[in-house]
Amino acid sequence: MMGKWTADNSEQIDGKTSRSICDAIGERLQQSLRPDTSRLSSRLQHLMDELRRRDGGDRFGSSR
Q: How far is the C-alpha of 40 from the C-alpha of 50, rounded, in Å?
C-alpha cells in the first residue's frame, strides 16, 4: 500500500498513515491470535519451558 490510497475518491491516505494503520492492525491480530498456553498439558508446558530456557529467553510470554 505504498503511495496514495483512495476511499470513495474523497479521502486520500498517505503512505505513512497507511503504514501506521497496518502496523496497528497487525499488533491487534497478534494479540488476538496468540496461542493460549494455559491449555497445554503439564508435560507439554514443561517441554515449552525447557525450549524457552534453551533458546535463551521467554520471548513467547509464559503465562506463569
A: 14
Task: State the residue range of the domain holding 33.
Answer: 5-55
What is the number of domains present in the chain?
Answer: 1
Lookup: cell for 27: 499488533
**39 falls within a domain:** yes
Rounded to an integer, what distance in angstroms lies between the CA atom of residue 52 and that of residue 31? 19
Tell me the per-residue pLDDT of 26-37, one tens digit each, with 9 for 90 and over. Answer: 999 988 887 765
**Mean pLDDT, rounded, of the chain:** 78
